[in-house]
């Protein structure tokens, strides 16, 4: 075997590897011997099948297996012998091989840059915090009350309108025959809720208490009950009363309906939820300033392939945003060349920070346990009521999906580790200041797109484009990409 380094340019390393034909043949023979001891062929006892027959029957499949194993082993040896840490999956290409000849392949790899993380004990940061004001609790209570509709009978028997509720009896028939599940008595139906099949609620708008009417509808073609799908139906409806939405009084009784002992308990629960939201925002702002400081304190080369891949992802998202908003690249206030340079800076920053966080985690043995991944899988599954088991099993079967859950957990653990070392001072701010978008604030100050180094390194939800100014669109794309 011969390993020759052919390139050592920056973070790129190229090798040519040659494995002699004799070694390949030895490996194939050893593997066929193992196969022969296990396989059952008519007329032969296990372990007694002639090598010539084994080569004829299993030679091609074994050769493929041996080649794959040999290439993997020799590639790893090339990396180990040269003490190289790949930054991403190496590129391997077999350049020469015929049965009975030497195996020759090339190995292209980008290696991790050599750098030392900063002394995080010297890192000084401010963490903005805000108190939960009583008026915010009151606003939240009013919002909750607004979502709890309380219908009462109208004082005068007027015609119903959208937003009202009707207390009705109904009986559904298809071809004059009542069908199962098509009847109810004193059912409360909110007009405009779209809780019944299309066309039903609309025909009840204008009805009054005491009315009897026939509602004619057609079941959708994709209706769940196959025997009703696409069928015409008539519902005999009796309207008992028209009801209108009444304001919900925020008191002890309201709190009890929500499962709490009294109004004070409800207020404390709401205050706790708001406080948790504020804490999450404080953490995000602290994390942002921490990453900004880390980006300023570290300057090392990043693997070009990783940066190109990150740039391609960012640029693709930017183009998708343009398409979705009906904008064009030539309509932007900067040339394509300027935009590409700007997003290239973002990609470089993001890759550098990713490598830095990974190195801090490696040096300090920060790992994500399978239990933590399982908890994240359960949390994701809960977002799909009724399909939890299916979603959980899907994550179990797909390692790449688990990796997507593992990455942010790892990042948060590294951020927590750095936070313990750094000096963090809490700074009281108003709720409005806590909720300000730093990108928008920076853009407003400079009246241009925020600098790439100030963008957060994590992906965020893309913002909607403003109707006219295309310049307002690009910071949103940039922040989304970051």
Question: What is this structure, in a nutshell?
Answer:
The protein is α+β, with helices and mostly antiparallel strands. The chain has helices at residues 21-38, 51-81, 134-147, 252-257, 263-297, 304-324, 336-363, 370-381, 388-397, 399-421, 431-435, 438-446, 473-481, and strands spanning 2-9, 12-19, 91-96, 103-110, 124-129, 150-153, 165-174, 177-190, 212-218, 232-246, 423-428.
Question: Which properties best describe this structure?
Answer:
alpha+beta, 482 residues, 5-stranded antiparallel beta sheet, single chain, 13 helices, 4-stranded antiparallel beta sheet, disordered C terminus
Describe the 3D structure.
The chain has helices at residues 21-38, 51-81, 134-147, 252-257, 263-297, 304-324, 336-363, 370-381, 388-397, 399-421, 431-435, 438-446, 473-481; strands spanning 2-9, 12-19, 91-96, 103-110, 124-129, 150-153, 165-174, 177-190, 212-218, 232-246, 423-428. With 482 residues, the chain is α+β, with helices and mostly antiparallel strands. The strands form 3 sheets. Strands 6, 7, 8, 9 and 10 form a 5-stranded antiparallel β-sheet that branches. Helix 3 (134-147) crosses helix 5.
